[in-house]
UniProtKB/TrEMBL annotation:
It comes from the Bacteria. PANTHER family: BINDING MONOOXYGENASE, PUTATIVE (JCVI)-RELATED (PTHR43004:SF19), TRK SYSTEM POTASSIUM UPTAKE PROTEIN (PTHR43004). Its cofactor is FAD. Residues 6-343 form the FAD-binding domain. It holds the Pfam family FAD_binding_3. The gene is mhpA_2. Keywords: FAD, Flavoprotein. The keyword RNA-binding does not apply. It comes from Microbispora siamensis. This is 3-(3-hydroxy-phenyl)propionate/3-hydroxycinnamic acid hydroxylase.
Length: 514
């Protein structure tokens, strides 16, 4: 008897993590049903930025150009004192991942609305039930059954799927139901977020500025669509009850030199910083993603983005497993790859928080600003450096001198027929081996080639722009980026995963990772 499913994957929660999970699953050919308690997008802006890695994920999902119309490029980040002393600055050099700026400012409700609109265009593969409060989930050898209640009618619904993703936020119901524990701490300090509509431009508004102060540090950031935000900690003895309306909030802004001539207060809210992570991100057929799996302070601008990256990583793997293209064991690589990255951004956020709160000694500050010497990989501050895998489905050594685990740059390239496009658009969404002016298949043993053939890998020679192409399976390095990148690490060939991370290189072994 054939099992009947409402969808391949049930997604609990339809915020940024949930919608990226749905888009990824649909993009890779499987169906999803999302269950979302709230009927409308959360009206308050929470996340404030996306970077070139996240935009590359949007590109894979076919939504980057429409999202780019809703967001603004970010100029730079700076940490300054009230006296005007600049403690630290992070400039944004040109991206290597296929975007012009590295960071963009967003207005989250607007960006979320655009992502949901894109998802609606996959109506044959994405179904969304709003007003559905999930109350339970059961799983067996063949799938999961999610129980939910309609918040308007009280009607109970069961949804049957092969797998489930808990993307239902920091207070995740799914996390508790499946028995995952959230470990870590919550800071006692309460912060007020003040979202404003801009009425006029002021000097350096396009910096993301952190006002560093032991008593009253402030986050000062331009959001897209004519919005601006300040985040300010309450002092001991203060509470949200002291700020019931905008009238009580205005003195906080005026102390920073912001007046009614500059902005109109749109809304304000209160929150605390969390540094917490679930003890495991998977229980059988149920996975956690986004805030359900990890919560971090906001200083690195990475909380929402980390959830989106979780969803993309898990989504393309689930899709290929469900379609029978990859073994079920691939799903074990999800947490192995994503947990270290979430931990990295959490640590980075904590350290940047110490800067804004002036908790670093002079020695620690100097160490943070120090530039390592004699590195193979050109140094960039951790906040803006391209991503690197620390584990998971990769083969070979990791570290400064290794190409394994790195994300391939994305320049403009040409194909043998003369078409010019960004690299990802030429390579497609599968496994690809790239060779430095050579067919990479010629570097493989028969056993190694059989392994990549089983994954339907493409074999592509990267030619210099000064040469003729010799066959259809070639691209031309028009921007002169790919060949120098390969040669920097001494690699003649690399194997790329669908998410464009290097899984293996001939320097160590081009065999399919175990």
């Amino acid at each position: 008897m054939t099992e009947s499913y409402d969808a391949d994957v049930a997604i609990v929660g339809y915020g940024p993590t949930g919608v990226i999970a749905a888009l990824t699953l649909a993009r890779y050919g499987v169906s999803a049903v999302a269950l979302e308690r709230d009927k409308d997008i959360y009206p308050r802006a929470r996340a404030v930025t996306v970077n070139d890695w996240t935009m590359r994920i949007f590109q894979d999902l076919g939504v980057d150009e429409r999202i780019e119309k809703k967001i603004d490029p970010q100029r730079a980040l700076r940490w300054v004192t009230y006296g005007g002393t600049e403690i630290m600055r992070v400039e944004h050099p040109p991206s290597t991942l296929g975007r012009r700026p590295r960071f963009y400012n967003i207005y989250q409700p607007t960006m979320e609305a655009e992502l949901r609109a894109a998802a609606r265009e996959h109506g044959d593969r994405i179904a969304v039930h709003y007003g559905a409060e999930v109350t339970g989930i059961d799983q067996d050898a063949d799938g999961v059954t999610v129980t939910s209640t309609d918040t308007a009618t009280g009607e109970t619904r069961t949804t049957r799927a092969r797998y489930a993703i808990g993307a239902d936020g920091g207070s995740s119901t799914i996390r508790g139901v499946v028995g995952c524990r959230l470990l870590g701490d919550t800071n006692d300090v309460m912060w007020v977020i003040i979202d404003c509509r801009v009425k006029r431009w002021w000097p350096d508004r396009d910096f993301l500025t952190f006002w560093s102060d032991k008593e009253r540090p402030v986050v000062d950031i331009a959001l897209s669509a004519g919005n601006h935000r300040w985040e300010i900690p309450l002092k001991p003895g203060e509470s949200p009850e002291n700020y019931p309306t905008s009238a009580e909030v205005w003195p906080l802004l005026k102390a920073l030199g912001v007046t009614e001539e500059d902005v109109e207060i749109h809304q304000h809210a209160f929150y605390k910083h969390h540094t917490r992570m679930a003890d495991t991100w998977r229980k059988g057929r149920v996975f956690l993603a986004g805030d359900a799996a990890h919560l971090m302070p906001p200083w690195a601008g990475a909380g929402m983005q980390t959830g989106m990256r979780d969803a993309h990583n898990l989504g393309w793997k689930l899709a290929r497993v469900i379609k029978g293209e990859l073994p079920e064991s691939w799903l074990d690589t999800y947490e192995a790859e994503r947990r270290p990255n979430a931990a990295f951004y959490t640590r980075l956020a904590v350290e940047l928080g110490r800067v804004i709160k002036q908790e670093l000694s002079e020695e620690e500050q100097a160490a943070m600003n120090a530039v390592p010497q004699d590195t193979v990989t050109p140094f960039e501050p951790p906040l803006i450096a391209p991503p690197v895998l620390e584990g998971g489905w990769i083969r070979g050594p990791l570290g400064d001198a290794s190409i394994v685990g790195r994300m391939v740059p994305q320049p403009t390239a040409g194909d043998a027929a003369g078409r010019m496009a960004r690299l990802d658009d030429l390579l497609g969404d599968g496994f690809v081996l790239l060779g430095d002016d050579i067919d990479p298949a010629t570097l493989l043993t028969a056993e190694e080639k059989a392994g990549w053939d089983a994954l339907d890998a493409l074999y592509v020679a990267v030619r210099p722009k000064t040469a003729y192409t010799q066959g259809p399976d070639e691209i031309v390095d028009l921007d002169e980026v790919l060949l120098p990148w390969l040669r920097r690490y001494g690699a003649r060939a690399v194997a790329l995963r669908p998410d464009k991370f290097v899984a293996a290189a001939d320097v160590s072994s081009l065999a399919v990772p175990a």
